[in-house]
Amino acid sequence: MRNILTMLTALLVAATATAQTATWTHRVEPRGEGLYRILLEASIPDRYHMYDMGPYVTDGPNATTIVFTPGEGVTLEGGVQMLTAPHRYHDEMFDMEIGTFEGSASFAQDVRLTGAQGSVGATLEWMLCDDRSCTPPDDLQLTIRIPADPAPAAGTAAVTDGEDDTTEPAADTSAPAKDTAGSSPGLWMLVIEAILWGFGALLTPCVFPMVPMTVSYFLKGEGGPAMGRLRAALYGFFIVALYTLPIAAIILITRAVGGEAVTADIFNWLATHWLPNVIFFIVFMVFAASFFGAFEITMPSWMVNKADAKADTKGLGGIFFLALTLVLVSFSCTGPIVGSVLIKSTQGEFWGPIITMLAFSAAFALPFTLFALFPSILKKLPKSGGWLNSVKIVIGFIEVALGFKFLSVADQTYHWGLLDREIYLAVWIVVFSLLGLYLLGKLRFAHDNDTPALGVGRLALSIAVFTFVVYMIPGMWGAPLKGLSGYLPPLTSQDFVLTPGGAHAAAAPTTRKYADFLHLPHGLEGFFDLQEAEAYAAQVGKPLFIDFTGHGCVNCREMESRVWSDPEVLAILRNDYVICALYSDDKKQLPESEWVTTDSGKVLKSLGKINSYYARKNYGVNAQPYYILQGRDGQELVPPRGYDLDIAGFVQFLKSGLEAYKAQR
């Protein structure tokens, strides 16, 4: 299933993603008496912005710089002018007022022609950023010819890998700059998973009984077919809004109060701190016990009854309260699903929680909208009965398994050592073995109906479950289990490994900072402190592979298991690079001498917060994984790379970094 989702994601990204490019155009306008004006215009991709010309202090953003060098027969008149007014605001991260351009930006330089003709050299440097990350600073060199006749000259500037771009008079066309950023399919994978969870929630025992209530309400509707369609559409809209708007409100409020860094810190805390993860673990265990029949979990009756009573009213208010009743009644089944979707999406880009919740709620609302639009299709649905209790039991087993993921995140980020990989696997093997026995009818619960004969459906499901159990068993002795890599603790936490390069063999020397509790996969050796890594890279004459990662990052583990494990990738990383893994969620408290004070005066004491601050301040990125290839003097060799399971692309990424490093010599 995961492979199918990966292929669907790749196709979706390929169909929708466009290369993020910077495009510069220029033209020359005569102004009379030998005076000319050179006009430059930058076309900025959607969702990206470019900083203005500053100037800024050393710790500020990378300002756009434009330097004109006059050739023979040309003199400069004044300096560069910003014809487009930048949007100015106080930036919390830089703690200063900055200016940015969006969409486009125009600049001008006046020159005087003293001969028959002449030329002017122009050097441009800029950087594009969005809410998630910044592309490396880009540059462009132009040679612009100034004609003596009154006809204006025009041309297009495209990045030419450092070479001069000499432009002849030509039509004003567009040519893109070199590609500086690629699209990551990580968010698309989350969206697809959220959609599947949304459809799956319809089969839960708390939700399915709401179908007859929906149909009976809309069967009583009046106003003709057009009004019926409108009422059904509003019903679906209200369901989506009740799930999505609270999450959006939290994000927007925190962003307005403290900026994006505060919102990122809140979601980072939610995803990695021990308290919310332990709470979610307990919640999942409680809900699982409820599904097994120990007790019933319902929303307060007064709340449900009040919403249900108002749903009987006519008009938009009645439709809204019917949607509210659905959300409240179904909470005991959808609550854990919603929590799991949200926690996972906080590890992605800034708007990930809103987008994934929108996808979940839209999928969840779609069947109810169809029921409201075509009430007669209810006749084709199976009736409620014992099969719903079986669905509830199956969900209970799955919730037990998924709940341990939250406990595992807390265990890894705080280094408790309670839930190593073999213990985690043992729990899953036992849970899914019991699920298989239940599907075969060998286990019975209090509210189960008699099942005199084993149906084909149960048999097929039990075969799938026991196949999954058999797949997991070799993991107890160190098998990589690539299909589960994103959900299991790292192999380095396993005590007994038969495979080459096992857990203890993979540990880096303890003389390196933090190597006593942090490890790299696949027997790789590396660093966990950037300064140490940079010094060692300079000593051995190798480029630096910087890995912004996290203990709770599912995509990081998947990249390590599916991409890093490739023999060619592994050989390049082991032989040609110095690896530095910077964990953004590690809770290790550092000595006072290693604390970092931010530009706003906040003191950061833990390893994860310091690494996260470094990632935001220097690269404008909050997401993991994020890979940077760094050469001499801290220079980026090639554009960074994020979550992408394309092995050939990752190999090319590493090889291009090596070529760029050799060119620095």
Describe the structure.
- With 665 residues, the protein is an alpha+beta fold.
- The chain has three domains: 20-167, Immunoglobulin-like, CATH 2.60.40.1250; 186-385, no CATH class; 508-664, Glutaredoxin (3-Layer(aba) Sandwich).
- Helix content is 45%, strand content 16%.
- It has helices at residues 2-16, 186-201, 210-219, 224-272, 274-291, 301-311, 316-329, 331-345, 352-373, 386-414, 421-439, 456-472, 530-540, 554-564, 567-576, 607-619, 647-664, and strands at 23-32, 35-43, 49-51, 65-70, 74-82, 87-91, 96-102, 104-113, 118-126, 128-129, 138-146, 153-157, 164-167, 544-549, 578-583, 596-597, 603-604, 626-630.
- A five-stranded antiparallel β-sheet has the order 5-8-2-1-12, with no helix packed on it. Strands 6-7-3-10 form a four-stranded antiparallel β-sheet, with no helix packed on it.
- Helix 2 (186-201) runs antiparallel to helix 8, helix 4 runs parallel beside helix 7 (316-329) and helix 4 packs antiparallel against helix 9.
- The longest helix is centred in the middle third of the chain and has 49 residues, at 224-272.
- The radius of gyration is 30 Å and the shape is globular.
- It starts with a helix and ends with a helix.
